[in-house]
Each structure stands twice: as C-alpha cells, then as structure tokens.
Design brief:
By secondary structure, the chain is of the alpha/beta class. The chain is 34% helix and 27% strand.
C-alpha cells in the first residue's frame, strides 16, 4: 500500500530543526496489520499524518500503490490529497474526535456524504448494530461512555469501506477491559472488510496481534 523512501520530517524550534523522522524507509504493502511502536515523541502520530497526507515530507517520498493506481503523496495537489483521504483512509483517534452536534448515526453517515456513497447508508446502520450500538443511533457523543464513543469511532472509520485504517493510540484513553473489547472489534472489522490496519500503539496486546511491529526511537 505505502512505500516510503528516505523520508524525513522535522519541526522548527526557533532556529533549530527538530528531526522527528530521518532517512526512514519502509514498505507497508507486505503486511495487513502493522503496529507502529515507540515512546512519546518518537514520531508515531507524525508518521500516520504523513501517510494520509495531512503533513508533508521534508525529504524523501511516500507513494500509495493499489493495483494499477499510484499516488505520490509528496507531489499530489491539495485537492487530490483530500480525495485520497476521503475515499482511501479511515482514521481512528485516541480521543475519538466525534462531531459533538451530530448523533451517533449522523457521525457514521458523514463519511458517506463526503464520498457520495449514500448507497452504503443501510450498511452503516448494520455496522452500528454489529458493534453493539443499535440502540444508540440518536444519542449524541457526550451521552455515550468512553467505550461506546470509541466503538462509534471504529464504525465511522469503516463506514465508507476504506482500503487503509490508521489508528492513533485507539486504546490509550480506555480502561483495560474496554480496550480489549475495542481491539477485538478493530481486528474483526479489519478482517471483515479486508482493509489494511496501521495502528500506533504502545499496548502490547496490539503489537502481539500484528503481522509486523515497526519500532521508532527518539
């Protein structure tokens, strides 16, 4: 899916460049489940943002390869990157990032509206039922527990049938039992939709279930 060649990313701290990634190469296409591990500040979130084109590389290249399609994220136009994210990527955040003024069902339907895939409306409802939220269609995020909000975030990420799921510490804000439940749901949905899962996490329960662990260092 993603081929990274000598990627580098830095942030400026005054006049100093603070390198987050440097001369980083990796082929994500060889594995379906990849864990990106490492301590805070090692670049896990930055890497996920690079993969979905929210952040641009400073050096090197990132290509998305799917069948005969090839997109160079480092040279793509902003419009092309927006379309790429809308159709190809599902994102799950540690702090859920749900739209507070939308109901659970409306949060899941939003990606379908953005991608004009309203034919998947019924499958969105079925996914909420499948994830144990069938009686919470009309609840707003602040009316849901932490575990319910993360299950809703999983449902939203998969709603438009993306090729790639990027998950940034999806269990980091949950208690142990709820985290285990979310991990099980995430793996089940990934297998059911034949997506590729790239998850940034320091949770050993996540890394031990992945095909490969990509360790980043400070």
């Amino acid at each position: 899916m993603f081929v990274l060649d000598n990627v580098a990313k830095y942030y400026r701290d005054g006049n100093t460049k603070r390198w987050i990634l440097r001369e980083f190469s990796y082929d994500f296409s060889k594995h379906q489940y990849i864990c990106v591990a490492g301590p805070s500040g090692s670049g896990k979130s930055t890497l996920l943002n690079l993969l979905c084109g929210l952040v641009a590389v400073d050096e090197g290249s990132i290509d998305f390869v799917h069948g005969d399609e090839r997109i160079s994220l480092d040279t793509a136009t902003p419009k092309s990157l927006r379309e790429f994210r809308r159709h190809r990527i599902g994102f799950i955040y540690q702090f859920f990032n749900l739209i507070p003024t939308l109901t659970a069902l409306e949060n899941v339907l939003l990606p379908l509206e953005l991608t004009r895939q309203r034919s998947l409306d019924e499958s969105a409802r079925e996914r909420l039922i499948h994830l144990g939220l069938g009686d919470r269609f009309h609840a707003f995020p602040d009316e849901l527990s932490g575990g319910e909000q993360q299950r809703l975030a999983v449902a939203r990420a998969f709603a438009h049938n993306p090729d790639i799921i990027l998950a940034d510490e999806p269990t980091g804000n949950l208690d142990r039992d709820t985290a285990t439940e979310v991990i099980d749901l995430l793996w089940r949905e990934t297998a059911r939709t034949n997506a590729t899962l790239i998850v940034a996490s320091h949770d050993e329960r996540v890394s031990e279930r992945c095909h490969d662990v990509l360790s980043l260092a400070l």
